[in-house]
Design a protein that fits this description.
The protein has 408 residues and is an all-alpha fold. The protein has one domain (3-406): Sodium:dicarboxylate symporter (Proton glutamate symport protein, Orthogonal Bundle). It is built from 17 helices and no strands. It has helices at 3-20, 23-42, 45-62, 66-95, 115-122, 139-151, 156-182, 184-200, 209-234, 241-246, 248-257, 260-273, 279-292, 295-312, 319-332, 343-355, 370-395. Helix 12 packs parallel to helix 17 and helix 14 runs antiparallel to helix 15 (319-332). It is globular, with a radius of gyration of 21 Å. The chain crosses the membrane at residues 42-61, 73-96, 127-150, 179-199, 211-234, 243-268, 288-308, 315-335, 341-357, 369-393. It is a multi-pass membrane protein. GO terms for molecular function: symporter activity. InterPro entries: Na-dicarboxylate_symporter, Na:dicarbo_symporter_sf.
């Protein structure tokens, strides 16, 4: 049975359980079960990224392709982020959803690591501490694997045994990750039920209806219009919707988990087995996008922040304010790597703080629907990663065609 069918069955069963089971007891159980499923999704992710990236960079460097692949991947990620921020900002300005009444809530304390703190985490005094983190930041592991892969080529007769060991670990962990993805349908039951219970607890849901409708319209437009159109003209004029069919499982995982790292484990698998992205490209770009390619979260953050601005002021938006939102929504998406499950929340909090003028805690009016906003963002982040990774692989001749009947 295809993985996406198992996932769809899990979605249906989870939605039924979340919709019909009494909340007392069941909600707490499924919340715990959802957290456990996400932990299982993380189980082999960090070592898989570490060993696969080191080997992938070694293979790219042998062919003098490292800078080309990474440079092209970064360029496509930046372009996609700018494009989605532009689309999102234009849509919220033109369609103008209604203001949301100011809701007074207590602020939850949180801290965002600064650039200096991030650099210290990447380059600790003891390099082995990158393996003992809390699992919230992939960048130190990524940089260390990149460093090793670049140095595997200095003397191949010496490094060959180490490369073979890393290659073996990469393949073993990929197989373990494949097993986890294969049973993802069971985990989707808990994740979907937990999401349904979360949505059912949203007070005055109708207040946020227009905002959620606007995000849905943008999502459909981007997934079924913008990305397929770009793939058709930039990726070889082939059927662009094969790409969308190939990432049904990662998109579903993103929607009900709202966690970029949890979604990454299925994207790595489907990127190779369905999209045909080579290991050397996928190992380098997919984790990078999970940390910094947050085009969808940037778009959702920009849209939500403009709604906050309109809710706090009856005055119309000025051109300068719109440009400010576009610029800082773009920039803030690159600061949320340590928060794989709350990028939109952190982005909104930072924008409100930077903007000031009495709305430092303005993001609290959207707190009831933040889980949905985060999920919207991660879905589009995942689609962007698959789109940019596939495009980079095709342009660097690191892609092999896979027939639809062979999709997992």
């Amino acid at each position: 049975m295809k993985i996406w069918i198992k996932v769809l069955l899990g979605l249906v069963i989870g939605a039924f359980l979340g919709g019909y089971l009494p909340e007392d007891g069941a909600a707490e159980f499924f919340q715990y079960a959802a957290e456990l499923v996400i932990n299982i999704g993380y189980y082999v992710l960090f070592p898989l990224v570490f060993f696969s990236l080191a080997v992938g960079i070694f293979e790219l460097r042998k062919e003098n392709m490292t800078l080309r692949v990474l440079g092209r991947g970064v360029l496509y990620g930046l372009a996609a982020t700018f494009l989605l921020v532009l689309i999102g900002t234009a849509s919220v300005v033109l369609l103008a959803p209604d203001r949301i009444p100011i809701i007074i809530e207590q602020e939850s304390p949180f801290s965002v690591p600064g650039v200096g703190e991030i650099l210290k985490s990447i380059f600790p005094r003891n390099i082995f501490t990158v393996f003992t983190g809390a699992g919230s930041f992939l960048l130190p592991i990524y940089v260390f694997a990149l460093f090793l892969g670049m140095n595997f080529t200095f003397d191949r007769s010496i490094s060959r045994p180490v490369v073979q060991l890393f290659d073996a670990f990469s393949r073993i962990l990929y197989h373990g990750n494949k097993f986890i993805v294969e049973i993802l349908g069971l985990g989707m039951i808990a994740l979907t039920a937990n999401m349904v219970f979360t949505v059912n607890r949203i007070p005055q849901f109708e207040l946020f209806g227009q905002l959620l409708l606007l995000l849905s319209i943008n999502g459909v437009f981007i997934l079924f219009g913008v990305f397929p159109l770009l793939l058709y003209f930039l990726g070889g004029r082939e059927n662009p919707y094969k790409w969308l069919y190939g990432i049904i499982t990662p998109l579903a995982a993103a929607a009900v988990s709202g966690d970029a790292y949890f979604t990454l484990m299925s994207l790595i698998h489907h990127g190779r087995e369905n999209l045909g992205v080579s290991r050397r490209v996928g190992s380098a770009l997919f984790p990078l996008y999970a940390m910094f390619g947050k085009a969808g979260s940037a778009m959702v953050t920009g849209i939500a922040f403009i709604v906050i601005l309109k809710s706090y002021s009856s005055l119309g938006l000025t051109v300068s304010a719109v440009l400010w939102v576009m610029l800082f929504s773009f920039l803030v998406s690159f600061l949320t790597g340590p928060f794989p499950g709350s990028a939109v929340f952190i982005g909104l909090a930072l924008l409100c703080s930077w903007y000031g003028r009495g709305i430092e805690e303005g993001y609290l009016i959207l707190r009831p629907v933040l889980p949905l906003l985060i999920s919207y963002g991660v879905v589009l982040d995942t689609a962007t990663a698959a789109f940019a990774g596939l495009l980079a692989a095709r342009h660097e001749d690191q892609h092999h065609e896979i027939f639809l009947k062979d999709y997992v």
